[in-house]
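@channel sequence for tomorrow's demo:
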Amino acid sequence: MTLTLNSTTTLNNGVEMPIFGLGVYQTEVGSETENAVRWALQAGYRAVDTAALYRNEAEVGKVVQSGIMSREDIFVTSKVWVNDLSYEGTKAAFDASMERLGLDYLDLYLIHWPVNDWQGAWRALEEIYDSDRVRAIGVSNFLPHHLEELLSFAKVAPAVDQIEFHPFLQTPDLQVFAEKNDIKLTAWAPIMKGRVTKVPELIEIGEKYGKSPVHVTLRWMLQIGVITIPKSANKDRIETNADIFDFELTDEDIAVIETLDKGEEGRIGPNPDRFGE
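structure tokens (generated this afternoon):
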């Protein structure tokens, strides 16, 4: 499987989305976010994932517009926060995000969590999509039953579901559902906030290739078809996180990683069915 930092996956509407990018959750507003995005683009990253909640859309937009590379070569994702999840609220939230980003269009716009009036929010996303202000729309933190409900009324099928996904939380039922319905999965918290560095099996696999457990984890995701957006504000880590394209895991390696799944016990963030409780 030949993968590079420029590799993309084709979404269900034909848009090409990079398989690897930078997440900026909890990256501080101001120079920390600007530097992280700049370093990532300079290192060859082609995707940046932000959200209204992160409060750093303006910094992301500033760097995207800075001329490091052409706008069409950068894939920008943002999300509508739960407080704005209604038809009118989402339309206003999108306009506000675009004003902060300072961009003419967005590449991907997501519903952040399946709460409040997310159904009305989806109708708003479809209208935004039809207006050509966003190239693709999708969701985040949706479980199979949420996706089933969405698909029951959606005029535009979601292209992406961004979820907590890592060796301890592999959600095989969601993987199957997403593949069956041509929805791409994107992993947040892919390296378990650094905890993968303490997992013996990942350490052992990495030693075979001269790679770290982080490299093994990120490479595993790409090989099983999950887009990944590791977060870092450290220049060296941003650069080294992308050092995953000069080796390939074997089927046996992948089988070992599959045994690490702990199901709900492995979850780091909120369960989407209990978000806000």
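heads up for whoever presents: The two ends are 43 Å apart (CA to CA).
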